[in-house]
């Protein structure tokens, strides 16, 4: 071969290689380009040309639209069009890596080419991110807000995690980003980051009283799991949640709330991992043409992207929004075009032991007092849910078990079991320590006795105390829906709100003694009902509709049923016809002493529940009451106005069978 021919071949090979290298760069996705290792390429003309595109695509509000191949060469007409829509705020987002990727690219450019335009665009993007944050700490998918599910707090595709990672790098001054904001902006970033982490803690889903993981999106107001697209139903996420926990694990010296969130999430991930299957993909023309779940005992663990909120069962969903049990039931377009399984959580499980050794094992030097614990939603206590604290309590203890509950809304069903005796549930404040749920008769649907399964709080352990909290059933006017069910002896409630509609308070237990003092109790029909002997002292009893306050079912040989002393009977403004009571069972006993009755109380006072026999077997009475609703001369003839001598037996000692002052202190004043 002569030299001339050899030279031509060499040139051809070099040209082909350069052309191929250039094509490889331009063929890369925009995300791959932004995540290129830093180096001199970011000083190349090719990088500068891309940077010009990035600057053009940025809107005046500071953010960028998504799914834009910034590396694609623009025509002059396209450049002119982009300049004309600079002020347009539609479709500006952090979804699919938008805005974050552009800021990362500009940072890498600025390190090599300190063009002030790159810095200004980066800082404008940072202002955009800070401005877009909700007061509760979350971020929407689009800002300015776009109607629809886009307003939800968005963990989907790691949108919020990507934001917080960027803020974390900047506030910690790691040098990952070459552009440093002002001192004032750094302080704004620190506040925004802490609010974002707080939002993550507040949105961690509680399943049967135990923290689990997160949904891909949460309602921006209620913080509850929320729906996005038709096939993205409220669920627990096996993908996005992993990145959330990895972010939490990156925090130096994490708070107790953060540590608690991580510990529970890791336990959840370990519990829901799926073994023995794999997802086989078939490709054609660089696209997935088939996706199929196969049995493979040697496959590493895998996690479903969507799991049921109540029991972690994986589910799949097509564009029709109907849940399916298997991936094979999903249409080809969604089956092949969506990531239904993930192995991201494995990274979390691999890193957890090192994190645990650093932050947990060292912290276990302090011994917990099992008889005095704290429940706090933010993780600053021993438990984050009340039920979790009860499950950890000793059975039949020799001393009181005090569960201190910090302010917060605890959406959970609380059950104090019969073996959980001597439990005291002490709220931080009546107004702000709230236990709430929304079960009702037709929702439970367990037959004719479904009412008794609806309670938000069920007490079955004797010697129970509750103070300074609110217990509510928020179902509304949907029929029977119990807020508080007390089936325990020597139970007392002081300074509590008990709220509901029909059947708010169920006081159960033949011969059981119960005490309510300085409480607010509201409802509609029969909202105080049951067979126990109960004394209500200095309480406000509020009627929400025209109906009946009490429905006692006092046993025949029980001396006392319901006794209201020094209570005030109030009602909504539109309520004007309320009975003091009617007999759920024919030996019902209910007495009002020294009570202030509003004008809503009907003159006749009492109702026989269409049972004539009950008029001779019930004992309904009043003594020394006052108010517009106290009209003894108009009461039904079969009710009673107590004489002075008859009223003397209605003392707290007699009603509650307390034999000495010491025993009064034991369970009434304790």
UniProtKB/TrEMBL annotation:
Class of the enzyme per the UniProt entry, highest EC level: hydrolase
GO cellular component: cell outer membrane
A GO molecular-function descriptor: pectinesterase activity
PROSITE patterns linked to this entry: PECTINESTERASE_2 (PS00503)
Catalytic activity, EC: 3.1.1.11
Keywords of the record: Aspartyl esterase, Hydrolase
Pathway: Glycan metabolism; pectin degradation; 2-dehydro-3-deoxy-D-gluconate from pectin: step 1/5
Database matches in InterPro entries: Pectate_lyase, Pectin_lyas_fold, Pectin_lyase_fold/virulence, Pectinesterase_Asp_AS, Pectinesterase_cat
Active-site residues annotated for this sequence: 526
Protein name: Pectinesterase
Ranges of residues in domain Pectinesterase catalytic: 372-656
Entry similarity comment: Belongs to the pectinesterase family.
